[in-house]
Amino acid sequence: MQNHTIFQDIINKKIPADIVYQDRIITAFKDIKPKAPIHILIVPNIFIKSLNKIDKSNKHVLEHMIYTAIKIAKSAKISQDGYKIIINCNKNGGQEINYLHMHLLGGEKLIALY
């Protein structure tokens, strides 16, 4: 059973969001509380609770999310200087919304975690 999240409302355009890219597999939109000058959230259009729920039947979604992040980084002109892609997984990994999502951050020098 899936829990309803704000992401479904954004995907279905029930609430406003600054959508930068959408296709049949993913939706990408600007984060409303950006942590960098460029902060885009990339979410699958189908419900996947977390990274742990990626399996053989839906691994193409994760691949498409990464490919889309690269395309957005290039179009935002941050690919040369660098950017960060983050996926938090479950509570201890920092995932706050139980819906798989990827953060694309850039536009300034970002702190290296490791």
Automatic annotation (TrEMBL):
The highest taxon in the source lineage is Bacteria
Q: Where is the active site?
A: 101 (tele-amp-histidine intermediate)
User: Which range is the signal sequence, renumbered to this chain?
Assistant: none
- Gene Ontology MF terms in the entry: catalytic activity
Q: Which Pfam family, just one, is annotated for this protein?
A: HIT
Tell me where in this chain the HIT domain is found.
6-114
Give the Gene3D superfamilies listed for this entry: HIT-like
PANTHER family in UniProt: HISTIDINE TRIAD HIT PROTEIN
Q: Provide the protein name.
A: HIT domain-containing protein
